[in-house]
Batch of 2 targets.
Target 1
Amino acid sequence: MSSRTVLIFCAFFVSVLGARYDPTWDSIDSRPLPAWYDEAKLGIFIHWGVFAVPSINSEWFWERWQGSRTPEVVNFMKNNYRPDFTYADFAPQFTAEFFDANQWANMFNASGAEYIVFVSKHHEGYTNWPSNHSFNWNSMAVGPKRDIVGELAAAIKTNTSIHFGVYHSLFEWFHPLYLQDKENNFSTQNFVIDKTMPELYELVNTYKPDVIWSDGDWEATSDYWQSKEFLSWLYTDSPVKDTVVTNDRWGKDSTCKHGGFFTCQDRYQPGKLQSRKWENAMTIDRRSWGYRRNAQLSDYLSTEELLSTFIETVSFGGNMLMNVGPTKEGTIHPLFEERLRDVGSWLNVNGEAIRSSRPWTSQNDTLTPHVWYTMRNSDVYAILLDWPTGSTLSLGAPMTQTGTTVQLLGYSGNFKWTARSGKGIDITIPPISASSIPCKWAWTLKLSGLANIY
């Protein structure tokens, strides 16, 4: 066999087997992020669990009742429940009788999101699938008596092109094995060996998610959690090794340093370009990730606020993961649904400036406030959060040349323009009737043929 034949054979062998990743951060961090995730830009987070039954304060209800003892929660339980009532007594009331996975899938599809992250298990330890490692504290044993993760995964994969993902909490507030490991200063790993890691392997092998969104890591290191061993397997040998993406919450030594994309902290908005792909995980309800029955209208972000956050996030190279919290019955509140559909209707007009875009040399304009830039191929997009008040819009960042064109996405024809002295452009805004304006919020100008594309 010639040396050339050997090289060809070796190349084929490597391509068939794929890259292998060792259980070290250097190796794990070298894995390229699958392209679909950066191109997607918008995901939907869904926080659902037993905490949807009391549905006040937040998804941290149990901890704030019997851990940190938040007065609002303690008084709620004292005034409304018998003295011997336990958190486990809420589980039979987690009925999910109106949960329709196909309806949810259609709603998420209408939002324009290209991936979802469903909470398979929060810090309360209750699993939304019939886990073999959560005896009598899962959605098949008590409560809905259904495989929630399985139903939603099937609906998403069958009826949409959305990527299905799961959130999983590494720790559980009151699990005795975890508390024992913690008492031992994490020198023992009984909880990880018997509970956390078996659940993660079970989730991946059973439901084949394209996102593993880890959380609950902050009290111990990635060595305790055996995170590097899991990620090595996930990227090298798992059934989703070529498509799966992960976040950075794999230990207190990992967050914002290692893993896949960075989340760093909830509602992360760094305000500048980052060297690593990042995600802004945020909530429509300003105060909670889970559903709250006592939420006020002012607690919810408006469509304008959501789009402003989304556009800024994408301009700086991030993705936005927008959270909703379903009710215990399995419905998604009409206000949440309205926000999702509003974002979807906006993307129907302006998605060209968002999906598969990348940051431009300028993120926001130097002359006019509330203008954010993205770039796709050789076109630059100026997204205006405010409609121009006069007949001329002046932008300081773009440099024009002969052949530059300006269009409003969703509106036919080109806008007239003149070059500003030195740098910038003055764009003539024609009178547009209310019936002809392409969307209700945040309008996008497509700038083609600029001199300063890069």
Target 2
Amino acid sequence: MGLPPGEVEKKEMDLTIRTEMKITLRLVISVLGAVMGSFLFGYNTGVINAPEAKIKEFLNETNIKRDGTPMSVDTQTNLFAIIVASFAIGGTAGGLLAGTWADKFGRKNGSLLNTICGIASAALMFFCRMSVSYEMLIVGRLLGGICCGLITGLTPIYLSEIASQNIRGALGVLHQLGVVSGILVSQILGFPEVMGTSELWNYLLGLAVVPCVLQLIILPFCPESPRHLLISKQDEANARKALIALRGYSDAEEDILEMKAEDEAQKSEAKVNIWGLLTSRNLRMALILSVVMHLSQQFSGIVAIFYYSSSFFKDAGLDSDTAVHATSGVGAVMVVMTIVTIPLMDKVGRRTLHLAGLGGMFVFSILITLTLTLKHLVPWFNIVTIVASLVYVLFFALGPGSIPWLIVAELFSQGPRSAAISVSVLVNWVANFGVGYAFPHMKTGLGNFSFIPFTGFLLVFFIFIYLYLPETKNKTFEEISSTLRGGGNIREDKNARRENYLVSYKRNENP
């Protein structure tokens, strides 16, 4: 005897809303474990700026202890530049390895293994002062860069793959929230009143060990990415267990069905490595969009604000001490606005938020240039410059700060996703290094007009993304890939498979 009609409808509804993911304890723990890596990335990015003068003193004292002669100012400056640049060089290498690393070791286990690199980096930076060795500091920063380069690939992939489509955007933003929180904490701890002193600067750098240890404690209790288990490892049993733990319902048939559909779609293609990605015509548009999204983040000019905000605020009229403390305002704005974007990401959409962010930055980059140029005529323009800079950061946090990290994982199916992450992260780190290195020379050559190149880039990126980037919110990976390839019936096919599944389900329940 069959089930009453009401019960059949209820079961249909249960299957329809199964992608409406619950916020389970295992999901929260998994997100926390992953975001500790993002926090480490942010901390290592921001921590080196505040103790610059103290580190240069250490370089000079080390040289005196070694050969009895002081180190020239130029040599100190060049060595400090190497210390800063070694992090970006390591990040470039780590970013290039991220996709292969994620496929070989897994998303969760790859992150666990990466903590070894992070702990070694923190130890070298902490003990360099006691060992009187600035070489240890350089190697420590290099290892820290490799670790963080891997993090910028591993964390966004893991967050996107443990989330259901209705909260994938919100979880993706948490990577950026971890990054900006790490930057803010490093800025506050680096104040001269806290740890930015000659006695404590190496402790400040060594605190990078804390998020690594927290990951070692948390990640063993987190499931591996179900998508990685099912599609890459063909381990359906453990993928099902991971889905049930993360989603909080009794079975995972709907999610398994969606992942199997993606697996079937990609089986017709050979395994995609980086060279295959670069030469594939079918994947070209998705790759171009991924690269442009990351370039729009770095060439927006935000690196100039992050790395040189103290001198920038001094140029705007603040005294040295106030400028150093005002830098933490940049970090605070980033944290607050990133939190604001979490619910917006799956309501407003990635495309809309990114365009709004680029558009706002375009307007306020022009305002920054105008106020810097005319401040000698209008004294209160100094205040306007600072306010415009903070609003500029606000618009960055609205979209360009977080969306490039999560969009790449959405634009590609499982096969080419890791290679695409590697290429995109590599582009991001190289662009970061290039802008960070070039801006002081731009500032010298262009003076108050140094933001004009960024204004031009923002306009170009806005137009390109407006014309070519599809919206990805509430779409499966398969649907997004089909859109970029020009497919038009993927949703209908998926619905047909769903209806067939329901018919089978009803037949089993109503023999």
